[in-house]
Amino acid sequence: SAVISQKPSRDICQRGTSLTIQCQVDSQVTMMFWYRQQPGQSLTLIATANQGSEATYESGFVIDKFPISRPNLTFSTLTVSNMSPEDSSIYLCSVDGGGTEAFFGQGTRLTVV
Amino acid sequence: DAKTTQPTSMDCAEGRAANLPCNHSTISGNEYVYWYRQIHSQGPQYIIHGLKNNETNEMASLIITEDRKSSTLILPHATLRDTAVYYCIVRGNTGGFKTIFGAGTRLFVKA
To answer: Average pLDDT, whole number, for chain A?
Structure first.
C-alpha cells in the first residue's frame, strides 16, 4: 500500500494568483497522477507525472495552466496558475500501486474568489 | 475514455445487500474490473478488482459475467457508512495504467 499526503488540504485564493499543491508518498513510485474533481462531478485526469521526464497531459489540460514537477520518486507538485473561479475544485494526487490498485490522497479543496 | 456504464443512483436499506451493476461491453482481454468508492469529501478508496473469476474480500464481492461484459459489486450488509459514490473502472493490471473514472453510482443507504 501507499500513504499519500497532500498539502494544503484546502485554500481560498484570489483570482489571478497561483497555488502550488504538494503530494508526498511514503514509498518510491514510478508514476504519479493528478486529478481534478469539479463540484458534483467525477474525477478527471489532468496529467501523469514521471520522475525525470516532462508530465504527460490529458486532452484539455496544458502545461502553462497546470505545471507539474516531479523531482524524485516520492514527491510531486501541481501548480494551478492564473486562477479563475472556474478552477474551484478538489485536486487529488494518486499513485500506481505497482500492479494492483491506485492510491489516492485526500485532496486539496481550492476555492477561487 | 471511460468505458463503463453505471446507474446514476441507487437506494438500499440498511442491513440489506447492495447490488451495484456495471456494464463494460468493450472490455479487452487483458483489462481488469476495478471498483472504488468515494465517501463525501474524501479521496477514492479501493474496494476490489477481478479479471474473470468472482472475487470476495472483507469489504465486498465482485461477480463478473462469463462474457465479462458486465459485473456486479455486492456489499453484503450495507450500513449508513457505505453511502458513497461507487466507481466501476476497467484498466490493465500492471504498472503504468491510468485510472479513468466514469460518472459512478451514488448509493444511498437508508435506515
So the answer is: 94
